[in-house]
Specification:
By secondary structure, this protein is mainly α. It is built from 17 helices and two strands. The protein has a two-stranded antiparallel ribbon. Strand 1 and strand 2 form a beta hairpin.
C-alpha cells in the first residue's frame, strides 16, 4: 500500500499506510444513513414509529421512500463493511507472522463488551453486540475461497430470513396506534426515571441474548462473508458490472414493492412479514450504494472527503447518535414521540447528519483517530499502539 506523509506530531514525522478512500466513504454513508431508521426508536423503545389511526399522506409517502431507499440498507452495508475489516485485518496480521485469530478475537471480545454497555446503559437498539457475535462466526470461514464464501453467505442469510418469516406468519405483532393505551404505556416507560429505563433495557438485552444466536447473528455473519468475498474480488476498487447492477436494481425494486404492499396491509401477518422482506430487499440496494460510492470516489482522498472523514469516526459517531437521540427523545423533549410525524423525524436526521459531518471535519484537524476507535484498539492490543498502525475493523478499517 502506498505511503503518504502525515502531519508533524511533536518533533516526529510519522508515515502511515494510505487509507482506502472508497471504504471510508462507504462507511461514512452507512453511519449517516443508519440514523434515518434508528431515529424512530430512540424515544419509543422497541415500538419505533407509531402510526396515527388515520395515516396522513405525508407519512405514507415518507414510509414508501424509506422502504425503497433507507430501511435496512445501511445496516446491511455496515455488516458488509465489517467483513471487509475482518479480511483486511486477517491479511495484514497473517503477512506479519503474528497470530491473526488471537488478535482478531481480542478485538471482537472487546466489541461484545462495548455492545453490552451500549445496549444496557444507552440504547437497547445496539448492533455492536450482534456484529461481534457474527464476527466470531465469520472468523471460522476466512480461509475459504470465494466460491465457498458466497455459498456460506447465502446459507447464513437465508436461515434467519426463513425463521423470521415463520415467526411473522404464526406470531404476528399487532400494530401500535398512536394515542392508544398501549402506546401511552410504552411512552411512559421511556420518559420515566433513568433507573426504570435501565431496568427495561437490561430486560430487553437479556431477550436479545436469547434471540440473536438464532436470527441476526447469522444474518450479520452472512453479510460479513459477502463483504470478504467482494473485497477479495476487488469490488471495493472497481465496483460491479452493468449486468450485476441490473439484477440488483430489479431485485430491490420488486422486493421493496412487495414490502410496501405488506406495510400498507391491514392484516397483522402481512405487516409483520414486511419486516422480513425489507431485510431481503436491503441487500441489493446496499450493493448499489456501494457501487455508486466506488465509482464516484475512485479511491481519491479529495472526492467525497466529508463522507470519508465521517467514515474514519464511524464507531464514535454511531455511539454519539445514540447518546444524543436518547437525550433528546427521552429526557429533553419526550413529547416529541407523540407529536412528530415521519417527515419531521427525517428533518431531524438530516440536521444531525450535517452536524456529524462538521464535527468530523473539525475533529480530524486536531486528532488522527476517534476517541472510541482509539480506546477499542488500545484495549485489544497486546502492546502500546503505534501511530503507524493500520485501522482494521468494520467501523474502524
Amino acid at each position: 500500500m502506498e505511503l503518504q506523509q502525515q502531519s508533524l506530531q511533536g518533533n516526529k514525522l510519522s508515515l502511515e499506510p494510505a487509507r482506502n478512500a472508497n471504504i471510508d466513504s462507504i462507511r461514512g454513508l452507512a453511519v449517516l444513513g443508519i440514523l434515518f431508521i434508528n431515529i424512530y426508536f430512540f424515544g419509543n423503545g422497541y415500538l419505533g414509529y407509531a402510526n396515527h389511526e388515520s395515516v396522513p399522506l405525508h407519512d405514507t409517502l415518507t414510509m414508501l421512500f424509506s422502504n425503497f431507499f433507507l430501511e435496512g440498507r445501511f445496516i446491511s452495508l455496515f455488516s458488509i463493511l465489517f467483513g471487509v475489516g475482518l479480511a483486511i485485518q486477517y491479511d495484514k496480521l497473517s503477512t506479519q507472522g503474528g497470530d491473526a485469530y488471537k488478535a482478531m478475537k481480542s478485538r471482537l471480545k472487546w466489541l461484545l463488551l462495548f455492545g453490552a454497555i451500549h445496549a444496557v446503559f444507552i440504547w437497547y437498539g445496539d448492533i455492536l453486540f450482534t456484529y461481534a457475535l457474527g464476527g466470531f462466526v465469520a472468523l471460522c470461514y476466512l480461509k475459504l475461497d470465494n466460491r465457498k464464501l458466497i455459498k456460506k453467505s447465502v446459507m447464513f442469510i437465508t436461515i434467519p430470513l426463513f425463521l423470521m418469516t415463520i415467526i411473522s406468519l404464526f406470531a404476528p405483532e399487532e400494530p401500535i396506534i398512536r394515542g392508544t393505551a398501549l402506546f401511552e404505556e410504552d411512552v411512559s416507560i421511556w420518559s420515566s426515571a433513568y433507573s426504570e429505563q435501565l431496568m427495561m433495557q437490561f430486560i430487553i438485552f437479556i431477550g436479545i441474548l436469547v434471540i440473536t444466536p438464532f436470527t441476526t447473528m447469522w444474518m450479520a455473519a452472512g453479510l460479513m462473508l459477502l463483504g470478504v468475498m467482494l473485497y477479495r474480488k476487488g469490488v471495493f476498487e472497481k465496483g460491479f458490472s452493468q449486468k450485476q447492477l441490473v439484477v440488483f436494481a430489479l431485485s430491490t425494486i420488486l422486493l421493496s414493492a412487495v414490502d410496501s404492499l405488506c406495510s400498507l396491509a391491514a392484516d397483522p401477518k402481512l405487516a409483520s412479514l414486511s419486516m422480513t422482506i425489507v431485510m431481503a430487499s436491503a441487500i441489493p440496494m446496499a450493493l448499489i450504494y456501494l457501487h455508486l460510492v466506488v465509482k464516484l470516489c475512485q479511491n481519491r482522498a479529495s472526492v467525497l472527503a466529508p463522507l470519508q472523514k465521517v467514515g474514519r469516526l464511524a464507531f464514535s459517531l454511531y455511539i454519539l447518535q445514540s447518546v444524543c437521540g436518547v437525550l433528546l427523545f427521552r429526557h429533553f423533549a419526550p413529547t416529541l414521540t407523540s407529536t412528530l410525524d415521519r417527515p419531521e423525524y427525517m428533518l431531524i436526521a438530516i440536521g444531525f447528519s450535517i452536524f456529524q459531518i462538521i464535527l468530523a471535519i473539525i475533529y480530524l484537524k486536531y486528532f488522527n483517530q476517534g476517541p472510541l476507535e482509539w480506546l477499542w484498539r488500545r484495549l485489544a492490543s497486546q502492546k502500546p499502539i503505534k501511530p503507524e498502525s493500520t485501522p482494521i475493523a468494520a467501523i474502524d478499517s
